[in-house]
Amino acid sequence: MNFTIRKALEKDMPQVLDLITELAVFEKEPDAVEISVEDLKNDGFNSNPAFQCFVAEVSGKIEGIALVYNRYSTWKGKVLHLEDLVVSQKMRGTGLGTALLDEVIKFGHQLGVKRISWEVLDWNEPAITFYEKKGADVKRDWDVVHLNEQGIKDYLSKL
């Protein structure tokens, strides 16, 4: 199968959002996606982009994405965070996920990061197996902590 891995362009954001939505459905949170194509364009394609995105293109259609951004670890220094690696359901098992992950790892190395981090749902055994086969250390003893928009407002109202 022929495919191309490349940096996303602003014009790709409608297809990127489609894959983000597909992931939300897969993760059993179909109504959780609040961002729009305009948000992605504004946040990713300005003078100080909030993220970088790589796409896997097959026959002119984007079938996979890897969205990353910079973080900083008090223990390690510069870190790259892989927010999402998504391959369309029909294209899973074709090598697109590996090719996207390869691109993320190369990008992180070029940036000189000390670590590349991401999360995976504890029930997503195919993804866990995939990451472990690639040499990733799945930290099963850590819990992810979020404070959503309403939680932020509630927190601030108590200050």
Task: Summarize the SSE layout with pairings.
Layout: E1 4-7, H1 13-26, H2 37-44, E2 52-58, E3 61-73, E4 77-87, H3 96-111, E5 115-117, H4 125-133, H5 149-157
Helix pairs in contact: 1-2
Give a brief outline of the structure.
The chain has helices at 13-26, 37-44, 96-111, 125-133, 149-157; strands at 4-7, 52-58, 61-73, 77-87, 115-117. The protein has 159 residues and is an alpha+beta fold.
* Cα-based radius of gyration, to the nearest Å: 16 Å
* Extended strand count: 5
Helix count equals 5
Strand order of the largest sheet: 1-2-3-4-5
Q: Low-confidence spans: pLDDT under 50, at least 5 residues?
A: none
Please indicate the percent range of residues in DSSP E strands (runs of 2 or more).
15-25%
Question: Mind explaining what this structure looks like?
Answer:
It is a single chain. The protein is an alpha+beta fold. Helices cover 35% and strands 24% of the residues. It has five helices and five strands. The protein has helices at residues 13-26, 37-44, 96-111, 125-133, 149-157, and strands at 4-7, 52-58, 61-73, 77-87, 115-117. Strands 1-2-3-4-5 form a five-stranded mixed sheet. Helix 3 (96-111) links the parallel strand 4 and strand 5 (115-117). The chain starts with a strand and ends with a helix. 19% of the residues are buried. The model has no long low-confidence stretch (mean pLDDT 96).
Structure keywords:
159 residues; alpha+beta; 5 helices; single chain; globular; 5-stranded mixed sheet
